[in-house]
Amino acid sequence: MRTLNILQSWGKVLRGHTPMLSIEITRECPLRCPGCYAYGVNHLGGEISLRELSDKRGDDLVHGVLNLVDKHKPLQVSLVGGEPMVRHRELSRILPELCGRGIYTMIVTSGVIPIPAEWMNLPHFTLAVSVDGLPEHHDVRRHPATYERILSNIAGRRVNIHWTITAPMLERTGYIEEYVRFWSAREEVQRIWVSLYSPQRGEQSAERLSPAQRAWLSSELPRLRALYTRLLTPVGYGQALLHPPSSPRECTFSRLSKNYSADLRTHVEPCVLGGDPDCAQCGCSASAAAHWISGIRVAGPLKAGHLLHGSMHIGNMMARLRNTGLPAWLERDRAAHGQKTALVRIATK
User: Fold this and answer.
1) Tens place of pLDDT per residue across the chain (349 aa)
2) Can you list the alpha helix ranges (DSSP code H) found in the chain?
3) Which of 103, 194, 341, 348 is deepest in the core (most CB within 10 A)?
C-alpha cells in the first residue's frame, strides 16, 4: 500500500498537480492551546492573523473547498482549522463528494465536538484526533477538549491519534510508553502518529525540546514501535525526526503540498506551520515521513527522492505545456529566489 501511494503521488507530480492540499476551513476554535501555530501572529506572514480573516460557511464554504480541489486535483486533502468540526454540517456535504472521487481525505480535530457516525462508512477517509500528552498535560493545554470529552466523542468510531510531544512530557520516566500503551489499548484507535513540537525561528518557550531530548526520542520511538504495533514509526523514522530537512526548499512535504487559510484565498507558507518555522528543529510527522520516504533506496545509489525530484521537473514542463501555471513547489521556489527556477537534476549519490 505504501508503494502504491508513492507511485500515485508521483503520477500526480508528473501531471503537474499538487498531491497534497491542506485547508483551514474555519478561523473558529473553542480551544486556546499554548504554542498553537495556527493562531500565531506570524502564521499568515504577519499582515493578518487567522482570527482576523473573513471565513466562509454554508454553500460558500462547500463550493469554495470543492473549487480548490477542482483547481489543484490533489491525491490527498486535509481539512484543518481552527476546529474543523465547528463546520460539521458543511463537512457532511463535502466529505462524501471528496471520498466519492477517490480522494484520500483527513480531518484533524481536537475531539471537542461529537463525530457523526455516518462518516465512518466513507471510503478513503481518516479522522485524526489531537491528544497532546496524558491528562496531566493535555487537559490543561487543550481544555475543553479533555480526555473525558474525547473518549465520549470517539466511542464507536475509528480514529487515528496524533500526539505532539513537548519538553515537559519528557521530565517523567515512563511517560512516553504510558501514553502509547493507553491509546494502543483503545479499540477505536487504528494508528498513533507522533510529532515533536516544532518552534518558530528564534522562539524561546517551555515546549521546545532540547537536542538531548530529540536524540533520546529517536531511539525510544523505534523501541516502542516494536512493542505497540499501532504506533506509526517505520524503520528510519526516528532518524528523520533527528535530522529534518534544513529548509522548506529541502522539505519534500513542503514542496508537494499547497495550503490555504480560512478565506480560501490566503496561502499558508512555507508549509502548514506557516510563519518562519525553525526547520532545524522541525518535528512534523508529515515532514519526517516524507523525508524518510525520500531516502529509501530504489536501486543501487538511486533513492526515491531522486525519482521524485525528476518527476517535479517533468510536472513543471507538463504544467507549462497545458498553460496551467506552476505547481506548488515551483511557485514557492520562484517566490523565494525572485527568479526562474533552475531545472531539477536527478542526482545519483
Assistant:
1) 444 454 454 455 445 567 899 999 999 999 999 878 899 889 999 889 999 999 999 999 999 999 999 999 999 999 999 999 999 999 999 999 999 999 999 999 999 999 999 999 999 999 999 999 999 999 999 999 999 999 999 999 999 999 999 999 999 999 999 999 999 999 999 999 999 999 999 998 999 999 999 999 988 998 999 999 999 876 667 777 788 888 888 888 888 889 999 999 999 999 999 999 999 999 888 877 765 555 545 455 554 444 455 444 444 444 454 454 544 445 555 555 454 433 333 333 3
2) 2-14, 58-72, 88-100, 135-141, 147-154, 175-184, 211-227, 237-242, 252-256, 285-294, 304-322, 328-337
3) 194
What is the Cα–Cα distance from 270 to 254, expressed in whole angstroms? 7
Contact 53, 261 (CB under 8 A): yes
Establish whether the linkage from the previous residue to 144 is cis, with ω within 30° of 0: yes
pTM of the model: 0.82
Domains in the chain with CATH codes: 17-300 (3.20.20)
